Amino acid sequence: MIKLYKEIQKSLNLRNYRLFKIMSKRRVNKQQSARIKKIQANYRSSTETSETSLPGLVLTRFSRHAEIEDNAGNRIHCSIRPNIDSLVAGDRVIWQPEGIRQGVIVSRFPRDSMLGRPDKRGEFKPVAANITQIMAVVAAKPALSWALLDSYIVMAESLKLRICIILNKFDLDCGTIREDLETFYQPLGYPLLFTSKEDPQTYLQLKEALNHHVSVFVGQSGVGKSSLIAGILPHEVNIQTAEISLNTELGCHTTSNSRLYHLPDGGALIDSPGVRELGLWHMPLSEIVDGYREFQPFSNQCKFRNCNHQDTPDCAIISAVKSGHISARRYESFIKITNQFLK
C-alpha cells in the first residue's frame, strides 16, 4: 500500500491515476488518508506552477465533465481527472487546455464551505461550494414546512454563513406566514425579503441582498427559486421555470444540476437542483442546538450535561419554552429535526 502511494507521488501518469482511483475505493485509516491528501496537495502545487495549468471556476457539473470559466470569462468544456472525488458549482479548480475551448480539470482547491443534501441512498451529496450566503425561499404553496426552514438555518449557522429568508409570491394569500416570519425570525436577526414577480421593486431589494455574496438558493420545489433567478438575470436563457402541479401542489423540478450565475453588480448565485432538505445527520446534538440562536443563553444551564432537551429532567431549554422565552413553534421544529437526523 505504502509503495503504491510513493509511486503515485513520483509519477502522475494515467496508470497511477487508475491506481489512485482503485485505492480510493478501499477503506483507509487516518494515516493513509493523510498521505492521500498530501499527495493531492503536492500535485496541486506542481500544477499551479506549470505554464500549461490555469485556474478556473466550475459553473456546472454533468457526469464526468464540467463547464468552467477561466480568468478571462471564457467558458470551457472540461473532462475531469479520475482522482478528483467530486465537483460542484462554485468549486475553484486547476485545468489544462486540450484543444479549442476544451480542457481537463486536474485538481481542485480546498473548499471554504460546502452545502450538501442527502441522495437517494441517504448519503451526503455536495450541491454548492465556496458560498457565503444561503437564500431560503418559502411560499404559501407548496405548504411551508417550518422544520425544513429551520434546518436551512441550522446549516447556515454551522457553516458560519449569512442566511436570508425570502417569502416569494407574497401578493397571494399567505395566511399568517408573513406575520409569523416577522414575529419569530426577524427578532433573531435573520433578514426577511418579500418578493413577487408582479412587483419589480421587490426584485431590486433582492439584488441588493445578493451583491458581493456567493449565494445559493434553497427551498421546496414550486416555491419559485428558478423564477426568481430568471427575474434577476433575464439575459440567461437556460434558466427553466415551471408552474406548481395542480394535482399535488408540490411543484416540478426545473433544474437538473446546480449552476452558478454571475451578478452584474458583483457576486454570484447558484441555482440548486430542487433542494427540499439538507443533510444534518453528520451533526451532533450540540451543533443542532447551536443552530438555534435563542437556545444559546439556556443550553448551558441544563442540570445534566447529556440533556437531550426533550425528556431529560430540569432542562433549561424546556423551561424557557414554558416561560415564553423560546417560541413553541421553533422548539417543535427542533424536536422534528433531532428525531429525524439523530437516530
Give a verbal description of the structure:
This protein is an alpha/beta fold. The protein folds into 3 domains: 2-108, Nucleic acid-binding proteins (OB fold (Dihydrolipoamide Acetyltransferase, E2P), Beta Barrel), CATH 2.40.50.140; 114-271, Rossmann fold (3-Layer(aba) Sandwich), CATH 3.40.50; 285-341, Ribonucleotide Reductase Protein R1, domain 1 (Orthogonal Bundle). It is 33% helix and 22% strand. It contains 11 helices and 13 strands. The protein has helices spanning 2-10, 14-24, 30-48, 146-159, 177-184, 200-210, 225-232, 285-290, 296-299, 316-323, 328-341; strands at residues 54-62, 65-69, 75-80, 92-97, 102-108, 114-118, 124-129, 133-138, 162-168, 192-195, 214-218, 259-262, 268-271. The strands form 3 sheets. The protein has a 6-stranded mixed sheet with strand order 10-9-8-11-13-12, with helices on both faces. It is globular and about 65 Å long. The relative contact order is 0.10. Mean pLDDT is 82; it is low at 1-28 and 241-255. Pfam families: RsgA_GTPase. It is found in: Cytoplasm.
Low-confidence segments, given as residue ranges, are 1-28, 241-255
Looking at the structure, the CATH topology of the largest domain is Rossmann fold
Backbone shape? globular
The separation of the N and C termini measures 36 Å
Question: How would you name the CATH homologous superfamily of the largest domain?
Answer: P-loop containing nucleotide triphosphate hydrolases
Order of strands in the sheet with the most strands?
Answer: 10-9-8-11-13-12
Radius of gyration: 23 Å
Number of strands: 13
Number of domains: 3
CATH class of the largest domain: Alpha Beta
